[in-house]
Amino acid sequence: QVQFVESGGGLVQPGGSLTISCKVSGSYFVYRTMAWYRQTPEKRRESVASVTYSGATTYEDPVKGRFTISRVNSQNTVHLRMTGLKPEDTAVYYCNGVPATTTWGQGTQVTVSA
User: I need a labelling partner for 9 at 20 to 30 A (CA). Which of 91, 93, 96, 98 fits?
Assistant: First the structure.
């Protein structure tokens, strides 16, 4: 069964930067498009960015120009570099495939606050 282990979250001031990472177990990662998702208590889980196995990326409008998704295929890892962070980016961030499997990791909390 696939496992996702997200890490790197924390508290950051508005305008600050943070990089979060996700380690994916087993063969699930191979040739699969991966994405970062986020969820708050008020909103359902939403996709923020995705990256194909070859490295092509897509971004949702709220994060375009501020977030950068990347992957290291040899390490089964996906990263999300977040800059220009805003309070509305506060959420628990998860990684998963596209489309997402029913298994989710514990996520990593990102809090943007002064």
Answer: 98
Nearest to 51 by CA among 26, 9, 79, 87: 79
Query: Which two three-digit tokens encode residue 63?
Result: 């994060």
How many Å apart are CA 19 and CA 69, to the nearest integer? 10
CB 49 within 8 A of CB 60: yes
- Cα 47-15-110 angle, rounded to 5 deg: 45
> Distance (Å, rounded) from C-alpha 41 to C-alpha 55?
31
Helix, strand, or coil here: 24?
Answer: strand
Helix residue ranges per DSSP H, 1-114 = none
Q: What is the mean pLDDT of each run of 10 residues along the chain (114 residues)?
A: 96 98 94 97 94 98 98 97 98 97 97 97
How far apart are alpha carbons 90 and 7 in whole angstroms?
A: 15
Pair 13, 111: CB distance under 8 Å: no
